[in-house]
Design goal:
Layout (H helix, E strand, L loop, with lengths): L21 E6 L5 H13 L3 E6 L9 H8 L10 H6 L2 H7 L2 E7 L1 H8 L6 H8 L4 E5 L3 H5 L1 H12 L3 E2 L3 E4 L5 E5 L3 H9 L10 E6 L4 E4 L2 E3 L6 H12 L3 E6 L11 E4 L3 H11 L5 E4 L6 E3 L18 E3 L3 H9 L7 E8 L3 H11 L4 E6 L10 E8 L2 E9 H16 L15
Parallel strand pairs: 1-2, 1-3, 3-4, 4-5, 8-11, 8-13, 11-12, 13-16, 16-17
Antiparallel strand pairs: 6-7, 9-10, 14-15, 17-18, 18-19
Helix pairs in contact: 1-2, 1-9, 4-6, 5-8, 10-14
Bound molecules: cytidine-5'-triphosphate (CTP).
Length: 427
């Protein structure tokens, strides 16, 4: 490890010739901009090549010269910079980055980003880059909690932007609350943990969304699942390096790019698609809200309202997860089996029973009632596995999915992972 002060002697100095991760640090205008200096140093210490782009507001707090000295690279501040555009225009800068991190990300920056504005170099870059983007928000806690910022946050999460922080505690304004920028070391760790992914090259099969069971050619029995959690899991597994196949019912949003998809409607179609894709699967995640019953004899013509009442006879659908679990022991490799449980009461007890009765390796349980659960932006999960459990606190489903994927990766390699929850130090 190099001397922390000797930042110009890091491997990243050999520049474009090395495999050093290339991190573009965007700095927007908040008092936490001074902490971005430490982030740049931290990334250099860890061997990254760093380039800095500052908004006009950021320059009111820290000078470009500071970041130039710390990054060892010229700092870009203007979209229309004749000199810089000749060497590296904003598109080339966007292409250069393996990852983009905005620290601090102000409420204004988040709002501009959520609306797709491109009114300065940083926001233009954010539209042009295909690299993963991480935001470290910093603002007064009331600004963080304002519905406008909540909406920006939800939109950006939905688009796959990752958030680190904000932390809670005393703020620069003297108030207490959530809005402090995460510590630079935590941001650097979050950025670099993704090299290589926790599920690098693992084959992950995921079911997502609701199913529709036909009553007649125009009607069906369905449920309120939006598919959001399953789509977020597919994106998080992809980001962790997995080769993902997503078998999904009719979801409210399109599947994320970079995953193989099979669109289905009924439980029977989902069952068939899963069995077809099962070979070679190392992790099976059943997040779909599969109908438990379907009309036994769907009509082949539209039912007419000729009678005062109508009885539909229902029959059980195949239990996809239970069926995969039954076959699992014969499969090589035996897939790690992850199920979901939605419960209105006695969460731990019901989920624990399902873990055992279905022979699962992990179950993620959440509480559903009139006000919570299906279709929500946020969720909280109680994860149980044989001999252990962990609560994942309420947060946007996209973030929650990232945490669950990390937990799944831990379960996949218990022998090689010193932090594994069932490793001896926990016993
Ligand atoms: N599941 C499945 N196929 C089904 C039904 C459920 O794969 N036909 C999966 C779900 O994707 C989820 C888990 O099984 O991972 C849910 O288990 P289940 O026992 O069906 O939960 P509930 O439907 O909540 O059961 P119950 O109504 O008995 O509480």
């Amino acid at each position: 490890m190099s001397d922390p002060e000797d930042i110009f002697a890091t491997p990243a100095d050999t520049g474009e010739m090395t495999d050093a991760p290339r991190i573009l640090v965007g700095v927007s205008g908040g008092i936490a901009a001074y902490k971005a200096c430490e982030l740049v140093r931290e990334l250099r210490r860890r061997g990254c090549a760093v380039r800095v782009v500052m908004t006009a507001g950021a320059q009111a707090f820290v000078t470009p010269l500071t970041f130039q000295a710390l990054s060892g690279e010229p700092v870009r501040t203007h979209l229309l910079d004749a000199e810089a555009e000749s060497g590296m225009d904003h598109i080339a800068l966007a292409r250069w980055a393996d990852q983009v991190v905005i620290a601090p990300a102000t409420a204004d920056l988040m709002a501009r980003m959520a609306h797709g504005l491109a009114d300065d170099l940083l926001t233009t870059l954010l539209l042009a880059t295909t690299a993963p983007v991480t935001l470290a928000p910093a603002m007064n806690h009331r600004m963080w909690e304002h519905p406008a910022t909540r909406a920006s946050h939800a939109t950006l999460c939905e688009r796959g932007v990752r958030f680190v922080g904000p932390d809670s505690g005393e703020q620069a304004c003297g108030e207490q609350g959530a809005g402090r920028m995460a510590e630079p070391a935590a941001i650097a760790a979050a950025l670099l943990d993704t090299h290589p992914g926790a599920l690098q090259d693992r084959r992950v099969l995921i079911t997502a969304g609701p199913t529709r069971e036909p009553v007649d050619p125009v009607r069906y029995l369905g449920n309120r699942s939006s598919g959001r959690m399953g789509l977020a899991l597919a994106a998080a597994a992809r980001d962790a390096g997995a080769r993902v196949t997503l078998v999904h019912g009719p979801c409210e949003h399109p599947p994320p790019p970079g995953v193989a998809t099979r669109a289905v409607e009924t439980a029977a179609e989902m069952h068939a698609a899963v069995l077809e894709a099962l070979e070679g699967t190392e992790v099976f995640i059943a997040s779909a809200a599969v109908a438990d019953y379907r009309p036994a004899a769907p009509a082949d013509h539209k039912l007419k309202k000729s009678r005062d009442s109508l009885n539909l006879e229902l029959e059980r659908t195949p239990d996809i997860l239970a069926d995969v679990a039954r076959r699992a022991e014969q499969l090589a490799p035996r897939p790690l089996l992850v199920g979901f449980a939605a419960e209105t009461d006695r969460l731990r007890e019901h989920a624990g029973d399902k873990l055992t009765s279905k022979g699962l390796d992990l179950i993620a349980a959440n509480r559903v009632d009139a006000g919570r659960g299906f279709g929500d932006v946020d969720n909280a999960l109680l994860c149980l596995w044989p001999g252990g459990e962990r609560e994942l606190p309420r947060q946007p489903k996209e973030q929650l999915a990232g945490e669950l994927i990390r937990l799944i990766a831990d379960r996949l390699a218990p022998d090689t992972n010193p932090d594994h929850p069932s490793s001896p130090q926990e016993a």
